[in-house]
Amino acid sequence: MSKASTTGTAWSLDPDRALPAEPRQRDIARAVYRATAELPIVSMHGHVAVEAILDNQSFGDPAELFVIPDHYLVRMLVSQGYSPADLGVPAVDASGTASETDHRKIWRLFCENWKLFRGTPTRYWIEHALIDVFGVTHVPSSEHADEIYDHLLATLALPEFHIRSLFDRFNIEILSTTDAPESDLAAHAALAADGWGERVVPTFRPDALFYPHHATWRDGIGRLSARSGIEITGYESYLDALRKRRFAFAEAGARASDHGHLLADTTPLAAADAGRIFDAARRGQISQGESHAFAANMLFETARMSLDDGLVMQLHPGVLRNHSDANFTAFGADTGFDIPIPIEFTRSLRPLLEEFGLDPRFRMILFTIDEDVYSRELAPLAGVYPSVRLGAPWWFLDSPGGMARFRDLVTETAGFYNTSGFVDDTRAFASIPARHDLARRVDAGYLAKLVAEHRLGLDEAVETAIDLAYNLPLQSYARRDS
Amino acid sequence: MSKASTTGTAWSLDPDRALPAEPRQRDIARAVYRATAELPIVSMHGHVAVEAILDNQSFGDPAELFVIPDHYLVRMLVSQGYSPADLGVPAVDASGTASETDHRKIWRLFCENWKLFRGTPTRYWIEHALIDVFGVTHVPSSEHADEIYDHLLATLALPEFHIRSLFDRFNIEILSTTDAPESDLAAHAALAADGWGERVVPTFRPDALFYPHHATWRDGIGRLSARSGIEITGYESYLDALRKRRFAFAEAGARASDHGHLLADTTPLAAADAGRIFDAARRGQISQGESHAFAANMLFETARMSLDDGLVMQLHPGVLRNHSDANFTAFGADTGFDIPIPIEFTRSLRPLLEEFGLDPRFRMILFTIDEDVYSRELAPLAGVYPSVRLGAPWWFLDSPGGMARFRDLVTETAGFYNTSGFVDDTRAFASIPARHDLARRVDAGYLAKLVAEHRLGLDEAVETAIDLAYNLPLQSYARRDS
Amino acid sequence: MSKASTTGTAWSLDPDRALPAEPRQRDIARAVYRATAELPIVSMHGHVAVEAILDNQSFGDPAELFVIPDHYLVRMLVSQGYSPADLGVPAVDASGTASETDHRKIWRLFCENWKLFRGTPTRYWIEHALIDVFGVTHVPSSEHADEIYDHLLATLALPEFHIRSLFDRFNIEILSTTDAPESDLAAHAALAADGWGERVVPTFRPDALFYPHHATWRDGIGRLSARSGIEITGYESYLDALRKRRFAFAEAGARASDHGHLLADTTPLAAADAGRIFDAARRGQISQGESHAFAANMLFETARMSLDDGLVMQLHPGVLRNHSDANFTAFGADTGFDIPIPIEFTRSLRPLLEEFGLDPRFRMILFTIDEDVYSRELAPLAGVYPSVRLGAPWWFLDSPGGMARFRDLVTETAGFYNTSGFVDDTRAFASIPARHDLARRVDAGYLAKLVAEHRLGLDEAVETAIDLAYNLPLQSYARRDS
């Protein structure tokens, strides 16, 4: 909380923030949280650019760090009538829309609209980063916008605020990036040569190669062919090339593959049918329905491949991307217009789980932004299939209320030990500590309730909290052949 | 709470009712609530009959005020085995079912069954109205039914309990009624002549003209034609007539149109297709499927029309009306047998939002009684489209728990400032203060939790509460050309 | 809570367990709970074997009592990589899988994995049974596994721990078993002869005869024919045989029928169509679609039959059984692989409720494990149809959080008096007191919140709690002709 907002004294973070308000539970939660507060950060799923780490980049100016690339923040201002262009988001179309280039002006606009973020996790993360990481002492406002801007600009230029220094300061033990199958992984190799090979690992993200109706698919196949050194002449060589790249990723330290599909469907195709769709797609003759069927088949094939290379399979379906074509045409993807749809897992995952669900070599981590499936489908599935773990609340749900509802709706059926521990899923590097700290606080609060209601011992709660914050993510994302 | 029920002293409302029980949060909530408790009531969506206000009607007797017209109350007694006829609901069929005409007897039956309402908002509203508005001092019961009846009968006859006096006493700044497109708006004109033109405004509710398979549709088109003075010969002149009536409503002070559809579908039709359906419907040759397609198209056209006349567009889909044909045949609509169905917004609204969602002249307010869409669809949509605001929890959800869940599930993604503020949606005039007061208490409780968990400053909470109770409904329902 | 786990003193149950943590609400909840804690148990829906009661069986050894037959417990250990065979679940296939036969070893495995159950109702129930029923003084662990095993083995052998003694000690007033239509009800008759006829009653569960595509259907029809003494030559005589068996069940004391369907569909078939499907099924020529249509029709026919014999109709749809074929083939049904699917009631029940929903002779109790329908569909339906009552949270939802959410999501629309009171739905006899006690505690907590927020009087809360724990289950399951 901004104490300055009520008292005029220096802006600061309350040590009890996001813990339960009720005194008895807060006391217990404090004790539980204390046991996890200083644990290293295990960040197994995120979108930090590996090159930024390799080059030990500075974060530029405040607008570049906090506003322009953050779709949470952009969308909230767009929802109140600003254009992405006002916020410096570059136009991608040929319309010649001029985006704001005065970054101080963008920062002012953000500061003036600070109140819009009340009650949101964006507010919570940015508050944490501004105060705790960058030493800002004023609440964002019209009055203080420039002063904060100048302070941040000076701070961000200091070597100790470049990314590798913050990596150390944040106590990040391991961080996974997200990488295309055709990536040369050169940055990862260079980091490894620097001794950072265990600290920064790649993740295999092949979505663009799994949906053949996407405009970029054919070029992607070409790049995959080139990178793998396998001439892709059809479906079988396509599978071979993917297999080869997965092994390359595993050798480069990858723990997992990652799959963001529209649906959770995992129905396999007969090889002949998959081959026919593949060939038609290369000729540009494919329907959306065939493309989705092909993508479902590829989830099935991914599970099969993972038996050999041990990569953990992450699946997070249920988002309709780029809901507004007009915004997409003007400003491109990842600008806030991705909207969830209802999702179904029980029947959709059945083909895959029938085949691989009981196999000790297989590990799957499931994410959702449709909360309706927590108690109905995800917890019962994770509560019986040894291969299934539930990922942390994700995207819109990575928030105090979202995390509390996750524990409430999942724990009684799946327990704690079928969950993956926390996953931050962020491209905003400076917010990583805030996100992990918040998850530890919310979990401490949930465990404190169990203790206060005499449903768990305090020693058990402390052990569980440590497992959720540290041991479970390491274990859940351990390569299955390791 | 009825203190009389435990101690025998006078029945009274506890000043802390519906605030959080935990002392720390209650203290904060009290401070927040104090800032909104006396604010004027802004009632932008309701079903009070404009003629009742024009004529400054009395509310009749207790059964006429509280029981017979209130479908919440009727349905609860029906659920325990009483017939609507026992409650004085008039039969509409030719079966000759005799409805109870002894209103004292109806009142007794209600009082005897007071316990059925435990834990419901009906109980909360009626308690507030009986105690605070009408000065009743006994809990409803067999024992006190007659005494309360007599007290209410005498009170309701007093001039200071006629509707305009209560309107002043309730501190209602503005109230929207709901009106058919073919309404002559004469009562609104007469009120305006009385100086009440800014206090009571109409709302354009064209549902009956949008579903061509309904039995009343053709007559409605006839009335629309007559009232608009436009001869309706086909789809284009039908649109013209609607357009003209919308402008008449806007001139009469209307802020909004209101749409209660079965589905949220907004897919437009080619004009030729819409025309063909329209013509077929006038010949009585239309399928249900065509009718729903036509209604979806009319939502799209409504958005287009609103760019010109500035009316805010309210949409509340998802209720299957008259679930029991037997009850509908005997007692007609609005007697408690309307049951929600699952609803979908992300894909359904896409056509409309593609076309109008980024237009600053467009404003849409969305309601649901399927809570599953709060965090999955509604908050993400409102959290990015500048045209979209989320209406208050509605119908079954207009309750302490319902409102708490709304804030919990919506705020972290949409913030507070993409919600519309409170909407009471009632035809029960005497319950209006209770409903607004309850919403202010529940919002105070939610904000108090944020403050107690150090996620918001107290000054911010107070400002937000005032916005939710007063400023946001005024702003959300401001005509877009105003 | 296991106090031993934190302090080393004797393991014990805290008297305030599962009551609200906040002191003010806990005080009120204590007062409410005190009024119900000692009430007799009314157990109207369960899966205890009637023969076990007739024979006054012992529960064998600890693995036989707690581990092998409990699919909640088995599935949690399977989810962490153990095979059902490790837990002594017998293989049903011809593969010759050897299941563990050393029950002490099975018990040790369970004790070593005690931590997996943190936060689950399984932990809560077993803790209650171990401490309160069997006097165990150590928390399950590797260290104490043998000691606990020996203690339980000795205890279970004592006559006062045989089932009839526990029945008395648990203060069970009435318990319903679940029985096939072709059951001879001989055990029930023998119990009646013993004077236990009012304490143990059968329930008519005809699912196996309603889905003609199931492999066992034809044999079932044969058994039904034999038991009823009616030669089943077609659909009409099939209905006659069912009708006759329902009367036999009613005469044997049955209060209800029970229906576990995949969907809630209740669409009736024309008799000719039902007859055609029936005849085709007898020839083995039936599709899944026809089978589901037949089952839906049979729900409709069940409602009709109940008008004559007064049996209450229980429906609990929405579970996809045996999600893993591999596990089903190896270990059979009820081993933890039943996973819920989304379910719909509003339209599905409409045909049945149209015909029978307002009939005072009809009573239906609805269960769900899809929580999404609580506020959207079930509460509105129960809040108006006099025939409908909502069953208690069931299966995965029979837990502190699940029960709290049920009250939160249902009460404001349906009130308390359209719910059935608690139903334990267990085959684990020793857990019956724990389950009922937990429900009484959670309801006390919910009611305490209403009192603390001044929405209900304490006297009303106490009366409501007693109704929920005792009167409502008796009334809801009273035969409608009684």
From TrEMBL, chains A, B, C:
Which superkingdom heads the taxonomic lineage of this protein's source? Answer: Bacteria
UniProt KW Ion transport keyword: no
Q: Which GO terms describe its biological process?
A: D-galacturonate catabolic process; D-glucuronate catabolic process
Pfam family membership, one: UxaC
UniProt-listed Enzyme Commission number(s): 5.3.1.12
Q: What class of enzyme is it?
A: isomerase
> Its pathway?
Carbohydrate metabolism; pentose and glucuronate interconversion
GO MF entries: glucuronate isomerase activity
Task: Give the reactions, separated by semicolons, that this protein catalyses.
Answer: D-glucuronate = D-fructuronate
Q: Which protein family is it in?
A: Belongs to the metallo-dependent hydrolases superfamily. Uronate isomerase family.
Name this protein carries in UniProt: Uronate isomerase
Per the UniProt record, the source organism is Tessaracoccus antarcticus
